[in-house]
Amino acid sequence: MSSGKRLFVKTYGCQMNVYDSGRMADALAPHGWRAAGGPGDADLVVLNTCHIREKATEKVFSELGRLRRLKTEAAADGRRVLLAVAGCVAQAEGEEIAARAPWVDLVFGPQTYHRLPEMVARASAAPPARPWDGARLVDTEFPVESKFDLLPEEAGSAVSAFLTVQEGCDKFCAFCVVPYTRGAEVSRPAADILAEARRLAARGAREIVLLGQNVNAYHGEGPDGREWGLGRLIRALADAGAAERIRYTTSHPRDMDDDLADAHRDVPQLMPWLHLPAQSGSDRVLRAMNRGHDADFYLRLVERLREARPDLALSSDFIVGHPGETDADFAETVRLVARVGYAQAYSFKYSPRPGTPAAARPQVPEEAKAERLRALQQLLAAQQAAFNKACEGAVQPVLVERAGKRPGQLAGRGPYMQAAHFDGPPRLLGEIVPVRIEAGLANSLSGRALAGGTAGDAAAAAPASVEGEDVRP
Ligand code: 5AD
Ligand code: SF4
């Protein structure tokens, strides 16, 4: 590929897609591709898509319409722009995309993007009959080779870096497309993950977020030849000094084993925040969802985790209006939320996904879904506001990730994952700074830095007088 080409990747959906988008850039970098400022000055535009709900999928097709115009305008200037659809919509609807949007050049799934340079070369070598015609190359295989073995080293330099440790899911929740789009569960070998974490740390990462569709189902091969669970992997990452802060997402309650729960007690680098989707509080609905546990199991698990780490902040996903859900079932969800007390949570209206079991069942009327979502979101927003408010007065070690919106302002995250803002000089970017929280707002915290910035881990970042202070909300 010729040098000086510019790439623009637009990412939809989850953190795994964010990770994949970065790795696509890594795959193309050795072939002369650099980041474009926006789609308008790119030679290759990639939409890295999400298929989880219908809305997410629709967005992709409307964006493709806009990009057709962009492609045509560029052609009028004598410039060829390649257009690619990647990610889960590509995986699920590969041929359909090529047929419905024939101006698309490349369609490839999450498991084949290591072949991107070759695909781009093939598409470039096929000049279009009309300026907006796409090459319509589709690669949605689940190849035997692993992209992780073939991708070049990662070039990102995020302070908080994503690291995919596991992909795919074998749980087959009745509502979910993931097992179809991302395929069966596969865990990366622990040695590869440790090496990647060390490289990320050397490039300036202070925090590593371990990613997987079902991350706590991780069961990779350890350097000792044995199978390692996620708890073991987290301990090894901490022991290797590979990260000052560790998080992981997204977990399934059924895969939360004792070793992982105990890691929350034993590993200070493991941040006291956990995204643990409950989906529903009704045993009937949980059964219909094929979640493999009831509400009581979830509540006991939360108790177990809070014993291990008393200040653990919890986050969750909920679906309202899943087929079969009655008002009484929904009331059970409200009860579960009230009992757990979340620091933050996402909630969605059930969206039928093609090919999933729940999509074929009688559906809950739209008005009932809308009403339940409104009620649940109100409750969750109140819990989040209360959690943030309770942080006021505490000192939290904030990892500074970027400049804030106002000049002189910095933005980062405290241990409990809330966005935190405070005033400070740019040299604090990438540092862990003790911040006295002065205001706990609906969606964020704001406060005042106590010291001029420190190196070292969260505990070391807090001055002696601050250590031991109650940071629990
Ligand atoms: N409809 C609505 N929400 C869904 N999710 C997954 N599939 C669907 C669907 N068909 C939600 C779940 C999951 C989150 C990532 O998206 O809550 O945890
Ligand atoms: Fe989807 Fe998560 Fe269920 Fe797997 S565990 S099927 S990714 S909702």
Q: What do you see in this structure?
A:
It is a single chain. By secondary structure, this protein is an alpha/beta fold. 35% of the residues lie in helices and 21% in strands. It is built from 14 helices and 21 strands. It has a six-stranded parallel β-sheet with strand order 2-1-3-4-5-6, with helices on both faces. The chain has a five-stranded mixed barrel with strand order 17-18-19-21-20. Strands 7-10-13 form a three-stranded parallel β-sheet, sandwiched between helices. Helix 8 runs parallel beside helix 9, helix 9 packs parallel to helix 11 and helix 12 packs parallel to helix 13. It is globular, with a radius of gyration of 23 Å. The termini are far apart. The C terminus is likely disordered. The site of 5'-deoxyadenosine has 12 residues, from strand 15.
